[in-house]
Amino acid sequence: MTLTIGYIGFGKSTTRYHMPYTLIRDNIRIKTIYNHRRKPELEAEYAQHQIEFTDNLDVLLQDGDIQLVSICTPASTHYDLAKKALENGKNVLVEKPFCTTSEEAEELFALAKSKGLIAMAYQNRRFDSDFLAVKEVLASGKLGELVELESHMDYYRPEAPDAPGKYYDGAFYGLGVHMMDQIIDLFGRPEEVSYDIRSVRNPNNPDDTFEVQFFYPTLKVIVKTSHLVNIPYPKFTLHGTKGSFVKYGIDQQETYLKAGVMPGETDFGVDPESSYGTLVYVDANGETREEIVPTPLGDYGRLYDQLHDAILNGTSKLVSDEETLTNMTILEQGFTAKNPRVITL
Q1: Which ranges of the chain does DSSP label H, i.e. alpha helix?
Q2: What is the pLDDT, as a whole number, of residue 343?
Q3: What does the alpha-carbon distance between residue 341 and residue 337 come to, in Å, rounded to a whole number?
Q4: Which residues contact 28 (CB under 8 A, 6 or more apart)?
Q5: InterPro entries attached here (predicted)?
């Protein structure tokens, strides 16, 4: 069966991180794209796909063929647009962050449930290649009991001209939302969280640096981002009672997309062998082993595959309401008092 979708928003999020994956899937049809300001030159690039473009939101919301509305607009608009879509009987997929507060998220989930619809956050980085490598290593059991995991998403971008914004316009809501979702996917809701969220390059701007630590009964997780890192940390570092795993290099899908190489093309998103992870562990015979772990192929389109099945076949959706609400709670609690500090969840 074919899932018919419409997009709200026609910027980089839609054209780079969504459409390259949905356009190549035979079981997904993009019928309509709404943008408040038409972009004829960009629209012309998609003429072969017979997509309807409109600056009238009702054209999309009142179309009985459209089953899913994917919302790719600024965070401040997510709640209102998702609510309108749900009220018009549409399932919704909402770009990160899902909303600006957990209260908004709770209301949307309750509305979706009351109408028998799905509302879900677009957590495409569950299909990052580096994260898939971590999941494979954990599933192997070779690390023993995991005691520490550190996740980084760093850049070297020293220039930061004035760009004032709200708390949800900074790095914590923009990048941390993905990194923390990966941790919540692996380990669930932590018992305690510590925060250090700052604007280092330009105090007039929202945060650009954060270190958040999750505390579980026997596990500590560090999630960290900085825009002033010129010698890269490992993307992931894991330590367990039997060994360690280190993976350098971020998922390559975004790199290929920026270069104009699309999903389905030869070697799209393939991780170079030089970035394969290293696993060192003690085996059952007490011998120390070292393995190079090939990186699985990432594919953000798999999120749409799972959502297709959830909407049309009644399977469980990829990102649960509880996981999104945990993420939203951790995000907004980061700005309720002075940093650094520790809170109990």
Answers
A1: 12, 19-22, 40-44, 57-61, 75-87, 102-114, 129-140, 171, 177-187, 253-258, 301-313, 321-333
A2: 83
A3: 8
A4: 2, 3, 5, 22, 304, 308
A5: Gfo/Idh/MocA-like_OxRdtase_C (IPR004104), Gfo/Idh/MocA-like_OxRdtase_N (IPR000683), Gfo/Idh/MocA_oxidoreduct (IPR051317), NAD(P)-bd_dom_sf (IPR036291)
Tell me if 143 sits within 8 A of 280, measured CB to CB: no
> Chain centroid to CA 58: how far?
28
pLDDT (mean) for 152-174: 96
Domain 125-301+330-344 has CATH 3.30.43.10: no
Rg (CA), the chain: 21
**Domain residue ranges in the chain:** 3-122, 125-301+330-344
Residue 100 DSSP symbol: S
Q: Are 56 and 36 a contacting pair, CB within 8 Å?
A: no
For the chain, give the mean pLDDT.
97
Question: Could you tell me if 19 and 30 are in contact, meaning their C-beta atoms sit under 8 angstroms apart?
Answer: yes
Do 306 and 138 touch, CB atoms closer than 8 A?
A: no
Residue with tokens 């993307």: 235
Percent of the chain with pLDDT over 90: 97
Domain at 3-122: CATH code? 3.40.50.720
